[in-house]
Amino acid sequence: MGQYPKSIRLAEFWGALYNELNREAKYFDALVFLFDLYLANDQIQGASTSLEKLVDIDPYDSRNQQRMDLLQGKADPDFLSRLRTQLSNVATHATQPPPQEKPHGKNVEISPVILEDVRAAQSLEDLLVQAEIFVQYSLQSKAVERLQRIMEIFPGEEERNERLRGLFEAAHWWPPADGKTSRPESPQHLAEEPAPRPFVSAPETLRDLAKISEINQNVFRQPSPRAMLSVAVNEVGSYLHATRCLAVVGAPGQPPQMASEFCISGAEPSSGGNIVRLIGQIEHTPPDSMGGLPLDAAAASSLTEMGLETALGVQLTDPETQTPAGMLIVGFAGPHAWKPNETYFLQSIGDQMLLCVHHTRLRSLVRTLAVADEKTGLLARSSYIDCLLQESQRSRIQGVPLALALLQIDGGPDLLRQQGEAPFERYMEQLGKAVQNIVRQTDLAVKYTSWALAFILPDTPLSGARMLAEKLKKAASGLRPPWEGAHLTTSVAVAEAVSRHEFDSEDIVTDLINRAEDGLEEARKRGGNEIISFEMAKN
Questions:
Q1: End-to-end CA distance of the chain
Q2: What does the pLDDT read at residue 519?
Q3: Which residue of 19, 99, 351, 409 is 20 to 30 Å from 184, comparing CA positions?
Q4: Segment holding 79, helix H or strand E
């Protein structure tokens, strides 16, 4: 948009593109730009729509009220009134309760009972907010810890608190029916215990969540574990404006299996010895209340040697064994007050990074053990279901799309009988080699039948699967079979996995396979040479 700063059409295009790519931070900036353009061109309806979307993305943005003021007297009054109500509700929930007013001329003491109730309510609110943030960041174990603490301090609260029951559902955890814990014996116990401080401002949370989604997608697209680590540290270091960011994979007390470091311009890369010493010192650091491992230069000589004054680490857990398997560390050369949302941010990125590394290694192992043909690299049909189940589980955990594409030779069974197995197999080898140059490193190509191939497409929506289908058909059309006769045509069926609350991974995979195979049958009924896609699961 730099060359055409006043082009509304171009700004609309970029906004739609960022929205489609789920780049929320970029989409937010595009909407801000669109609002200003619409307003400058007296397109009040467009400005109103942009503002409404901005409020949906970040209702805590302080500029929302300023934009409403600019629309005053121009936009629909009912629309402005509704938007103002929405913003006022946000402000009400975001602020602390005002202190009790004292009558003029008197010193009124607050009743200890009232004071106790206020403290208890605030403690419950803090714990609920913490649990909600942990759920948003997919940190289930920490969310469950907070929910267990709520049930310990406030037994029976779920019977009257719908918000708490919703958190039980979101965290997939419910308190045991007969395991309620009684309140502490002394009511002063709660009064003496300091309430957890509010820890994340909403704008930071929303921005972090958008960035987490963006970084996780970038990490997942990388072809190798080392590339994943490199992208993670560079993205995290740049986003937090850190001096250094370090990711290591390996068991505690042992040299790292892999490591990658981000340094700001002008900083020298850390030596291997400094990295090992830093990891050892952070491993022995007592965790804070949010699970982070903060370390200052006064307590760690390795930080001084790396030009850092303070660092924060989070421990990463192996998704299979649930044991420590790595660490993500960020450090600053100057003073820095660590915020709890930075701990959540690092933990979420680090856990997903390790999960991606784990899945990439599994894919490499599957390719090694289940390759059907060394010439093409296609996986055997026997690995098809296992690969789909693994990718379905990862899709559910990370909240990313998963698609399946089936490519078949039209009239394949008849051609196989007419031409014989050996010539037809040679043609399928040519096809396998041709399509391997099209699919990504993270995609899995499987020998589905003697005349069909399957493509498991992680992190791919239905629109992306359709684009791949067109490329597959084009690649197949350029091949000539090793026999005389008419030119061959192909059909492709694509489907995107549908995740429902009542579905487990097996249900998702079964539904996905059925819809893709139904697509191939539909293509056959239409005479072949088709691309078929079903938008949603059939009832």
A1: 45
A2: 92
A3: 99
A4: helix 77-94
Pairing type for strands 531-534 and 490-496 reads parallel
Banded model confidence at residue 406, pLDDT cuts 50, 70, 90: very high
d(CA 28, CA 15): 8
Q: Give residue 78's identity as a one-letter amino acid code.
A: D
Task: Please say whether the beta carbons of 461 and 469 come within 8 A.
Answer: no
- Burial of 34 by CB count in 10 Å (0-12 exposed, 13-18 middle, 19+ buried)? buried
Two tokens at 11? 């700004």
3-state helix, strand and coil shares in percent for the chain, rounded to the nearest 5? 55, 10, 35
3-state secondary structure of 517: helix
Mean pLDDT of 14-34: 72
Amino acid, single-letter form, for residue 453: L
The b/e string for 254-276 (b: 16+ C-beta within 10 A; e otherwise) is: eebebbbbbbeeeeeebeeebbb
Distances from the Cα of 368 to the Cαs of 361, 363, 372, in angstroms? 11, 9, 10
Does the predicted TM-score (pTM) go above 0.70? no
Residue range 110-165, pLDDT digits in tens: 444 444 444 455 467 667 766 776 676 556 677 787 888 888 888 888 888 888 88
Token representation of residue 59: 């209702």
Write the CB contacts of 428 (distance below 8 Å, at least 6 apart in sequence): 447, 450, 451, 453
CA atoms of 57 and 79, how far apart (whole Å): 17
Q: Which residues face 137 on adjacent strands? A: none
The one-letter amino acid at 519: G
Cα gap 165→171, rounded to integer Å: 10
DSSP 8-class letter at 228: H
Degrees (nearest 5) of the Cα angle 246, 251, 254? 85
Three-state SS at 106: coil
Alpha carbons 384 and 512: distance in angstroms, whole number: 13
Q: What average pLDDT score do residues 379-399 get?
A: 80
Closest CA to 18 of 55, 48, 47, 53: 53
Q: What is the pLDDT of residue 105?
A: 39
Evaluate the CA torsion angle 347, 352, 357, 359 in order and state its sign: positive
Tokens of 401: 């799309």
Helices (H), 158-314: 162-171, 188-192, 202-220, 225-240, 272-283, 301-305
**pLDDT tens figures, 341-378:** 888 889 888 888 888 787 666 555 555 555 555 666 68
Answer yes or no: is pLDDT of 518 > 80. yes
Residue showing tokens 């989070």: 314
Question: Would you say 336 and 375 are in contact if contact means Cβ atoms under 8 Å apart?
Answer: no
pLDDT digits (tens, 9 = 90+) for 449-487: 888 999 999 888 898 899 999 999 998 888 888 887 777
Contacts of 192 (CB under 8 A, 6+ apart): none
- Spatial strand order of the sheet with 293-296 comes to 258-263, 244-249, 324-332, 310-317, 293-296
